[in-house]
Amino acid sequence: MKVQNNKAWWLVLPVFLLVAFSAIVPMMTVVNYSVQDIFDPATRYFVGVDWYRQVLQDPRLHDSLLRQFIFSACVLLIEIPLGIAIALCMPTRGRWASLCLILMAIPLLIPWNVVGTIWQIFGRADIGLMGWVLNSLGISYNYAANTMDAWVTVLVMDVWHWTSLVALLCYSGLRAIPDVYYQAARIDRASNWAVFRHIQLPKLKSVLLIAVMLRFMDSFMIYTEPFVLTGGGPGNATTFLSQTLTQMAIGQFDLGPAAAFSLVYFLIILLVSWLFYTAMTYDDKNR
User: Model's pTM, two decimal places?
Assistant: First the structure.
């Protein structure tokens, strides 16, 4: 019987402890703030769950949460199928494959605030290409004044920025499928749809789970791009949970309610991510 050597875990342990420490200390600080009313560094009072009760009854949380779920749902419904389609169309070998991989990676390298600035200029009717073209075609487009235009612009911006991640993940998953499956499909004269339905899609299940989890968590915490592009407007049309939390913590300096808000925010992300994971791994557990 071969004895498994686990000594390599000792090399990972220091990094694990460092990451755990850097995550637990801020979390405990937030928990401490969420149960206290802080007037100054020397004056604070224990209030229990009062801040949680106040936050859960806050209409700003309800409105931001609804906008956040709608945005994340739209992101997943567009980026996951689009990323799969792009990955299927990408060449598998040669110079074109390398060029496609480089081009797909470029949007991921652009900082988030720069992405917002690019689309802010791109959508302007006076100097932006997209805004000028749309208005020249007779389409009244103004993301700074029209709610629907702002929503569509933020959504298209996110799709442009992050679909590459889904496509690259799916591309790596497709390249990992052994060629013997495709040989058997050619022998059986299977159609392209049959190959995708019975070979490629089942083999991509683990990759798609990672893609869905990453895109949901990132879209649910979106802040920089819409803040730079629209500032949360027009009105509060593109004010998501992260912006509401920032306004509460920094703009109003309500540290107690903001801490409670952030923990509720964290629990929502944790719960929905767990539901996604459970749903996508349900069939595997019952086999």
Answer: 0.85
